[in-house]
Task: structure prediction
Amino acid sequence: MPLDAWLPIGFDIAGRAKAGSVLLSGKDWQIVKADGEDRLLLMRGELLRGWLGNRLLDEADVLRIRFGSNEMGAILNEPSFSLAPLDQCASPRNKVEALSFATSLRETRVRYPDGSLGHGLYVEKLSRILPACTEDALLVDELVLGSWLTGGLRVSVNPMSGIQNLLSWMSVEQLADVIRAAGLEPTGAIPVPSSGMDDVSIARSEGNGGTEGRFRLPGRSALENFFNDHVVDIVHNRSHYAALGIENPGAIVLEGPAGCGKTVAVERLIAHLGWPYFAVDAESVASPFIHETSRKVGQLFQAAIAAAPSVIVIDEMDAFLSERDAGGGQHRIEEIAEFLRAIPEAIKAGVLVVGMTNRVDMIDPAVLRRGRFDHIVKVDYAEKTEMLDLLRTLLEGVPLTEDVTLEVYASRLAGRPLSDTAFVVREAARRAARARMDKIDDTCFANAINALPQSGEPPKPRVGFL
Result:
């Protein structure tokens, strides 16, 4: 189906090129063919104004265009430079291409220190990654870089032991150089000299025990207890459990509505364990090509097994592990079969498998069978006591006036997404700082919580820099 073009074919672009057919399109941007092998990035509206306002683009980079009543900007891109959404970029063929992307990531963060780049546009010519949408959860830069290096697999570059097995063309030292070029610090790999076979260095995981002590999850006491009982205690007391026939923690499904804290809980658990982690979701493994999704799933599980002990996080399980009877053809059956094979193998090898979903009823029953996922844990919105614990944790060390009663705000925030609580704390602090106060008072808190949308009111969409 042809995409809706903003410009007619043959339209003159400031005497530099002529517009052709649309190749790719998104909210307020299009990539179109130009003369020869050149391509054009067209931009308009709030997205263009945001990129210019945040200095991600300079006026000198942009060719101004008017067609009828429409005003837009264009960047002419030569074929020697990459220009594409991150999830459609070809994986690098050598270290030079990898360094070019890493440099673009670093230069982008100089101008745009916060916000998600996960759905950005890679404009290699300008050494820039332009954020096309900020409504998604923030992807850390280690994950953005790892996904690009592997051609779409959601794998972090840190610890390096988790990704090195997927980058056979790059040594540990070269990977470390690329990570540093992105403005990040490489961790988690030890070069091991080969025994006469070749000169390739092998990455080994440094995380075999993680952080000692009890795992803490403020605002989620029931989930905190579950993780301590079924994961952390087993990891920290392996010999005792092994003597009774338990080698590794079983796989877990966290089931609950969006915003209830599933992702945050898993991220904190991974940080506590200190293990390499691998993310599987519809975006990172889905492919329109038959057999390609199954291949990517198998590849990622094998990488996690090679880096064990490690963690695999399967986000939005229902998106690609729905019941086989629901249709989807032979390739869907093949993809689910790959998961059915890979999950028990990974658990046996010491991989902690954690799935997340808000529609557990849609998942194929064979996937949820005991031996694959031993535990299905309901995670709901926090109630008052849990919310109070979270507020106290977020405000630890922050000066408050005596009139602030956190119990009142815990009651008002109970049953809401945990992100609302973090917003209220940040907004109250911002209002106090703006008023040049040295403590947060009750008025700042009241105004911050009143800035939240009413329960049931849909949030305003955030696209570009709105």
Remarks:
- The chain is about 35% helix and 15% strand.
- The domain at 384-450 is CATH 1.10.8.60 (Helicase, Ruva Protein; domain 3).
- The chain has a mean pLDDT of 80.
